[in-house]
Amino acid sequence: MQKQYSTTFREFITRDDNGRYHVRLGPQVFSTDYQFKDVRIEGENGGTSVSPDTLQAKPWIMRNLRHEVGFQHKKAVAIMFGDPCFRRERYSANQRIAYKNALSNGR
Q1: Given phi > 0 = left and psi -120 to 50 = alpha, else beta, which region is 46?
Q2: Number of domains in the chain
């Protein structure tokens, strides 16, 4: 019988000032940048780089990292674009008429 765990396997921890995402996968904490160029296992003494052979042998690491980092990035972008500075108000009817008149008069 398998042991029932009370915590999830994949958990987002934080995004640091350098833009690295820290994700817990099982008992290990991985950190990576958004483009997955540098994947590290974080420990008490700092991070150790994960070799490409390990990533090929264990494809679940990259699959879970991509899923969690992509989800957190989409969430951050949605919050950013929800800001009032990114909202565009629709042009009024008079503004649209003036624009179309300017186009037809300019030809």
Answers
A1: left
A2: 1
Given pLDDT bands bounded at 50, 70 and 90, which one contains residue 106?
confident
Whether 4 is covered by a domain: the verdict is no
pLDDT digits (tens, 9 = 90+) for 52-82: 999 999 999 999 999 999 999 999 998 888 8
Q: Which residues pair with 28 in a beta bridge?
A: 25
Q: Is the residue at 62 inside a domain?
A: yes
Model confidence at 90, pLDDT cuts 50, 70, 90, reads confident
What secondary structure does DSSP assign to 50-94, as a single string?
Answer: PPHHHHHH-HHHHHHHHHHHHHHHHHHHHHHHTSGGG--PPPPHH
Burial of 91 (0-12, 13-18, 19+ CB in 10 A): exposed
Q: Is 3 inside a domain boundary?
A: no
Q: Which of 22, 32, 62 is nearest to 40 (CA)?
A: 32
